[in-house]
Specification:
Blueprint (H helix, E strand, L loop, with lengths): L4 H29 L4 H27 L5 H9 L5 H25 L15 H24 L4 H15 L8 H7 L13 H22 L3
Helix pairs in contact: 1-2, 1-4, 1-7, 2-6, 3-4, 3-8, 4-7, 5-6, 5-8
Length: 219
């Protein structure tokens, strides 16, 4: 039996909140403990995020599909695997959850709750990286669902952990995460002025993979 829409929206909101707690909270902790070594901080940030994704997709996948990401919802909707009428509510729940996750992270570390990031993340290389990161994320999800659905939590967790390192942007690959990270002036932040191009790149990457996926991962 499919859970009700309210149950699924709660799952998307809470799941995205915990995802941002994993991203932002581990970034704050990593920066505090790494002694200025950015590589060590990024490694800690990546591992914590991957671990959180594995837990969230495993526990909430059966409830809402564990999208936690507007472009994932968009991709499934275009492919006819998600109801059009549920797309906007899902995306709204993801954005709200992401913002709440950032605020909770600030509260845990005794920081000002309301912040705006000053971390610049812009330029052609960053935008291409977000196209690649998002293309790869949708590729991972579609391929996993097509051939080994039971491995999707592991595949996504491993992909994002790796993509932190092989993309110039550290693989945001998620508009809700990008919006939320503009509200934290910590290790994981992105200045609000640079958010629109990141989101545009993410949408492009997802749409490209929807097209390619129709060629590779046919029903």
């Amino acid at each position: 039996m499919t859970p009700s829409i309210s149950t699924r929206l709660w799952a998307e909101c809470v799941g995205t909140a915990f995802l941002l707690i994993g991203v932002v909270g581990s970034g704050i902790m990593a920066e505090a403990l790494s002694g200025g070594n950015t590589g060590v901080a990024l490694l800690a940030n990546a591992i914590a995020t991957g671990a959180m994704l594995y837990m969230l997709i495993t526990t909430l996948g059966p409830v809402s599909g564990a999208h936690f990401n507007p472009v994932v919802t968009m991709a499934f909707t275009i492919r006819g695997e998600h109801a059009v009428k549920d797309a906007a509510p899902y995306i709204g729940a993801q954005i709200v959850g992401g913002v709440l996750g950032v605020f909770i992270s600030h509260l845990m570390f005794d920081l000002d709750v309301f912040q705006l990031s000053t971390t610049a993340r812009t330029g052609t290389g960053q935008w291409i990286a977000e196209i690649v990161a998002t293309f790869g994320l949708i590729f991972t999800i579609l391929g996993g669902l097509r051939h080994r659905p039971d491995t999707v939590p592991t595949l996504v967790a491993l992909y994002i952990t790796g993509a932190y390192w092989f993309t110039a942007s550290t693989s945001f690959a998620n508009p809700a995460v990008t919006i939320a990270r503009s509200l934290t002036d910590t290790f994981a932040g992105i200045t609000p002025a640079h958010v629109p191009m990141f989101i545009a790149a993410q949408i492009i990457g997802a749409l490209l993979m929807v097209f390619v996926g129709a060629k590779i991962f046919k029903h």
